[in-house]
Amino acid sequence: MLKISKSKLNELFDAVSAKQTLYIPADREAGAAEYRKYEKGMELTSELNTVRSAKDFFFPQTENLADFKIEGKTIEVKDVREECEDFVVFGVRACDARSFTILDKVFLCEPVDSFYKNRRDHGTVVTMACTRPSETCFCQTFGIDPTVPEGDAACFDDGENIFFKANNEKGQKFIDSVASLLEEGDTSKLDEVQAKTKAIMEKLPLAKLSTENFGGDKLNEYFSSDKWAELSQACLGCGTCTFVCPTCQCYDIKDFNTGHGIKRFRCWDSCMYSDFTKMAHGNPRLTQLERFRQRFMHKLVYFPANNDGEFGCVGCGRCLSKCPISMNIVKVMKALEVK
Amino acid sequence: MNNDTLIPKIGVVTDIRQDTPDVKTFRVIAPEGGKVFEHMPGQCAMLSIPGVGEAMFSITSSPTNKEFMEFSIKKCGCLTEWLHAMEVGQQITIRGPYGNAFPVEGDLKGKDLLFIAGGIGLAPLRSVINYVRDNRANYGDVQVIYGSRSKDDLVDYKEIIEEWMADPNIRVDLTIDNPQEGWDGHVGFVPNYVKELAPSTSKTVLVCGPPIMIKFTLAGLKELGFTETQVYTTMELRMKCGVGKCGRCNIGNKYVCKDGPVFRFDQLGELPDEY
Question: Are strands A2-5 and A161-166 parallel, antiparallel or unpaired?
Fold first, then answer.
């Protein structure tokens, strides 16, 4: 397998970023990791994952859908879409890589969302295998192997070297573009690292969490469960879970008057918010119980019902560490489960 | 880049009719003339005044009308206030058509049809009624039961009197909630009127109106011996995209914008009671 010594990784970053925009998970001044546009000398973070997910690359928090110019009674619609430039996202974890295939099911089904597809077509996702999963990790619950991540190309860290493997044509193209910096390497140590990682995974606190009792056919079991009242009681409706979630994709469309015309934006929205479903004549989800239930029913029942059993969660654990009242999908699954 | 459904087209408002004190019907055409797009009865469109908002409205005109589309809109919120303030010649944005349709070329074909509408609920059914009138040979008996708060609140009253009631091939029964000067027709709520009229249970029913009216009408129909598989309705929930992606108009795993808005009551019965 082709590899590069970790000490030379920045040479690879320099080479990639000379041709196209490169994003890597790097530390912010405050310490937490985020995807940042690579600039010479920038180091890969030592954190396991970024605070925000990687969904921004394909589904940004806000984006301009169209512009309007209004003169008297006439309206001009301006298509503001531009062909996106090629870019590379390096160091995506297996959970976030899987989230892209989940978002694909939403945005690439007919009618295709051209804004999303444009970015997806031009972005190359280079993943990084996990070697030290944390106690909030439960990607294995959803059949994800963090030691063999998806993405266009995958990287594997044996402590001293980073190995490269293409998962598709786009990934092969990426590897070919940096081939001059790579050399054939011995993967024996890599197998050891993978075995060690798997041993850690088996001992993780959430290792036994199972989706066995969830899925598209569980509507009646769970919708009217009496557990929702207790589970949702402390929910603040802040929407943090939906914003850090790599698979949450609900959006709002809003207009802004710039003074020189109208800009129409698409922005992330949250089913946890009280006005999400509010209409002039009423609201079908009146209390936080209904909103809270919607989020988890969507991920554990509705989404699999519509997508061949695939769940709307990748077990990244962000909601576990970020919810201000420490409520999360794991607690919901454990409380709800009808065996 | 291909067209994107989220980028709207322009529609020109060529006629505005004040149908009731709070309902206006807007006629919309493409700037170059003709309809902005084709649709089937029951489908909807996203209308917008840029800078104000965008919302989903049922297309009240029949697809057999080849010249224009019509939207009957009740003034009840921010965008509808603005729409009501428009003048003829004003442009709006329009995108669609969205959603499924009443199965006028499927299960409804050859059937005896009973339309039951309350208030602005006539708007989506009017498209079907006029489609059926224009393809009359394809359907059996047609009966319309329509009620509103008052005589003045019957949407499109002129068309009902001058065309539907004058049409020997359809039967129209009107009712208003309370007695009113100048009204010698039936007085009473729609669900009770349906029970009084006791239509034949061989009919296929299409019902639309305020949620409470739909609820009692369905109960009344069941008392008369109708089954849920015979009764269709059309739903309304808050929508942003119209194509099942923005995530807010779902009832269980069904998106009203994409899998609806037309549902049969047996289909609705399988979904959670959250609408």
Answer: antiparallel
User: What is the three-class DSSP state of B27?
Assistant: strand
Tell me what pLDDT residue A117 has.
Answer: 97
ipTM for the predicted complex: 0.93
Of A219, A257, A276, the CB nearest to B272: A219
Among B59, B127, B49, B50, residue whose Cα is nearest residue B98: B59
CA distance B136 to chain A (A): 34
Spatial separation of the C-alpha atoms in residues A38 and A56, rounded to whole Å: 16
Of chain A, the percentage scoring pLDDT greater than 90 comes to: 95
Main-chain dihedrals φ then ψ at residue A124, nearest 5 degrees = -110, 125
Beta bridge partners of B24: B18, B73
Joined tokens for residue A67? 């512009």
The pLDDT of residue B245 is 97
| Alpha carbons within 13 A on the beta-carbon side of A227 | 15
Pairing of strands B231-234, B262-264: antiparallel
Contact B91 A112 (CB under 8 A): no
A83, amino acid identity = E
User: Strand, coil or helix: what is A134?
Assistant: coil
Q: Which three-class secondary structure state does DSSP give residue B59?
A: coil
Q: Residue B86's pLDDT is what?
A: 97
Q: pTM, whole model, 2 decimals?
A: 0.95
Q: Which of B56, B73, B120, B253 best tests the A interface by mutation, with the highest count of A CBs <10 A?
A: B253
The single-letter code of the amino acid at B263 is F
Is the model's pLDDT at B142 over the cut of 80?
A: yes
* Chain-chain contact of B275 with A284 (C-beta, under 8 angstroms): yes
Three-class secondary structure assignment of A30-80: CCCEEEEECCCCCCCCCCCCCCCCCHHHCCCCEEEEEEEEEECCEEEEECC
Could you tell me the sign of the dihedral formed by the alpha carbons of A98, A102, A107, A109, in that order?
positive
Taking CB atoms and an 8 Å cutoff, what residues of chain B touch A58? none
Q: How far is B210 from B230, CA to CA, in rounded Å? A: 20
Rounded mean pLDDT of chain A? 95
Q: How many helices (H) and strands (E) does chain A have?
A: 12, 12
Out of A75, A251, A279, closest to residue B91 by CB: A75
Non-local CB neighbours of A236 within 8 Å, separated by 6+ positions: A324, A325
Angle of the B190-197 helix axis to the B211-224 helix axis, nearest 10: 20
Whether cis (ω within 30° of 0) applies to the bond prior to B8 is no
B48-75 pLDDT per residue, tens: 999 999 999 999 999 999 999 999 999 9
**Contact predicate A181/A12, CB 8 Å:** yes
| CB-based contact B43:B259 (threshold 8 Å) | no
